[in-house]
Prior knowledge:
The structure is a homodimer.
Chain A: H1 5-24, E1 28-29, H2 31-38, H3 42-50, E2 62-63, H4 64-75, E3 81-86, H5 90-97, E4 106-113, E5 122-123, E6 126-130, H6 134-140, E7 145-148, H7 152-164, E8 170-173, E9 186-189, H8 192-207
Parallel strand pairs in A: 3-4, 3-7, 4-6, 7-8, 8-9
Antiparallel strand pairs in A: 1-2, 5-6
The structure holds a DNA duplex.
InterPro entries (chains A, B): CoA-bd, NAD(P)-bd_dom_sf, Rex_actinobacterial-type, Rex_DNA-bd_C_dom, Tscrpt_rep_Rex, WH-like_DNA-bd_sf, WH_DNA-bd_sf
GO biological process, one term (chains A, B): response to redox state
Pfam family, one (chains A, B): Put_DNA-bind_N
Amino acid sequence: MKIAEPTVERLVQYHRLLEQLVAEGQKVVSSQEMGEMLSFKASQVRKDLSYFGEIGKRGVGYHVDRLHKHISRILASPRKWSIGLVGVGKLGEALLGYKAFQSEKFRIEALFDVDTDKIGKDIQGIPCYSSDAISEVVREKKIEVIIITVPGTAAQHVADKALQAGTVKGILNFAPVSLSVPGDVLLAAVDISVELEKLLFFLKHKDE
Amino acid sequence: MKIAEPTVERLVQYHRLLEQLVAEGQKVVSSQEMGEMLSFKASQVRKDLSYFGEIGKRGVGYHVDRLHKHISRILASPRKWSIGLVGVGKLGEALLGYKAFQSEKFRIEALFDVDTDKIGKDIQGIPCYSSDAISEVVREKKIEVIIITVPGTAAQHVADKALQAGTVKGILNFAPVSLSVPGDVLLAAVDISVELEKLLFFLKHKDE
DNA sequence: GTGTGTGAAGTGGTTCACAGCG
DNA sequence: CGCTGTGAACCACTTCACACAC
């Protein structure tokens, strides 16, 4: 079944919200309530949830615990993904320590950096290799996803080397450039400066 | 004139690309070329650029330098925005040091943290205040935008306190929660964990 | 001939409105 | 009755296709 990107984005948010509600002990929730908490229209919530079968109770709402489990199953991974992170600067380290980044769905198997002080060491329990060895290590460890947190100038090069290994299926790019990758590689970009620029642009436009 | 969000996003990317081309000394560029480099359709590029008047030359393409200046003007700020950053953890510090974050368009005027080791000090040249003083400092310094890089559990509280000052018009949220803010406050969210979850979800779906 | 600018057509996602079930 | 589930209407953005300027 085909499922649109914005829908997946919202599913992840429903899931996060439900985690909270479970913790708070709330038993039942309506599309109305969920919508208000996440700033979505109630009809949007219902449509999203209906894609995966009738899960709510008419006249009542959604059973929090049940819905939470349901969405967990939709988002579940068939297995643990193997991830490599390239660029152990401030941002890279921030990600490593990030709580929302501890997940059963993947494991960060290798770090890469150009800094000789870091190469050969373990950082937060994960071995750091030279960026020159990306292809080899990625291939050896069968890494399927790489996270790029290097400066923009190095990002394309890093991506190319990682893809050479032939095992990489997805890239999460934090560098402020748009990468070129083959069509069969999934690419997600988190572009912090673009986000800020957009915000400032619309602020300006509201002012006027 | 109304201009859509996806268009602004692309404009920022054209701008970045053109900076490169200017540096490389390229004189002329076609919608075709730009599209290839950024993975957009050429027609998309042309439509985006045409919103702001005829800027290209038919049969030739776009004059790189001229187009770069043109988009600079579109994205320009009327004045320097005053920004506060709440949460000087790894991510906050990463942002402070981030090169793509040095801009003429804004200045980070204040930092906030709960860590007493940081409060009262200057960090990367910017004074750090107690998170308890957000309302007061934001009001005093007339801060218009706040960047939130605190843990999810604290984010809504921080946002509420900043908004109390009455000067905040926009929020850039990095915490993995969806904030509730009044309708007249612009909200941009950079949700790293959602982005990764989405990537993994679509990886799974391609596998099957 | 070549590449832009743009109305018109197409696509995909959101919202409505109401039937249907608990 | 109340709230879900969902086809249909709507809306926004993208892509096409071609006239037009260089």
